[in-house]
Amino acid sequence: MIEEICEWKSKQLKKMIAQFDYDYPDKQISFAFFDTEILSKMVQKQVHREICWVSPKELDSKSFCRADIEIVKHIKNQDRLS
Question: pLDDT tens across 50-62, in order?
Answer without folding.
Answer: 777 788 889 999 8
